[in-house]
Specification:
Blueprint: H1 7-19, H2 29-43, H3 48-53, H4 58-83, H5 85-104
Helix pairs in contact: 2-4, 4-5
Amino acid sequence: MTITPSVTARRSAIEQRTEDAFTTDQIGWRFALGTVLIIGGYGAWSLIPVVIEADLEPSAKAFLSGLFGATPFLTKVVAIALMGRPAYNFLKRTVFQWVRRRWSGQA
């Protein structure tokens, strides 16, 4: 006996996928700010060597390097909350398409 999903379940799944569609016409300040947060979060890793070489207490160094190490994750969470899931999925899709084209050798 096979179980097939009902027509209503299939329709709701299709409607849910179309809600996630995000176009370049919908890009606004929230999308731009979220993108800057994600990129800036990864830039925080470059500050860890500066903190390690600074003349600070070891506990302050440990705190600051831990904070800068967690910054990419924290800024990504804030950016997704700010942008919304459809905009974040659009960003991922756009970046992955660019990477695939770049690595495959196509123009």
